[in-house]
Give the backbone structure.
Amino acid sequence: MVILAYALAALVGISLGLIGSGGSILTVPILVYVMGIEPVHATAYSLFIVGTTALVGAIQKSFQSTVDYKTIILFGIPSLLAVYTTRLWIVPAIPDVLFNISGFVFTKSLFLLILFAVVMILASYSMIKPAKIDNAQTAETRKINYKMLFLQGIAVGGLTGLVGVGGGFLIIPALVFFARIPMKTAIGTSLFIIAANALIGFTGDLQGDQNMDWPLLFGFAAVSIIGIFIGNYLCKKIDGSKLKSVFGWFVLAMGIYILLKELIFKF
């Protein structure tokens, strides 16, 4: 199982390198169902693994001049504030048992897994049926929607803090439609935002009383980083849009599996 987990960790990096998103969607299920890590800890571990991997990928993209630093600031500041606040105060404030009805105990861990599964299903839709982008206009002829960019930043930060995902499937469409930047630049910019959100969110966990398994974290991150180098290489050879659709179906299946396992097959 450990060998399988590390093989899947490479897939996390490959996904981030190929399509700029999706890798973080895999990390929590790998940690929970393959490694047997408790869900609350898994969301914290996911932030570190995804953050370090995305940072390496973002640095690669910066050398390729596909990063918009102004947009990182506009989108990133509200997002960073939201993710840090969520990990430091909101997640610890969620009670261990939310409610108990006729013997059915809805715990904090179950809540996070169900929320994560719902996020996976929503993410799969954006991957399977990506929105059509009007390329007839250049970025210069379009007006940046600062209000929506700010609100999207807060939403992505809150989501990142709650379930440990990078939010690339939300960040990239937001950057294309509200920041008005090209798709390739959106992917590189997204990796920087994902890295910042995830690592800042992880520092919120370090303020708490969680005991981190550092050997596991560094091992997973190292394998995932190898994966992102592979993904960056493959993105020059493979049609990213087709791969994104296939990956979306996989994410959809995983989301449905988690819902069924936690809500039906468990009883």
About this structure: The longest helix spans residues 39-63.
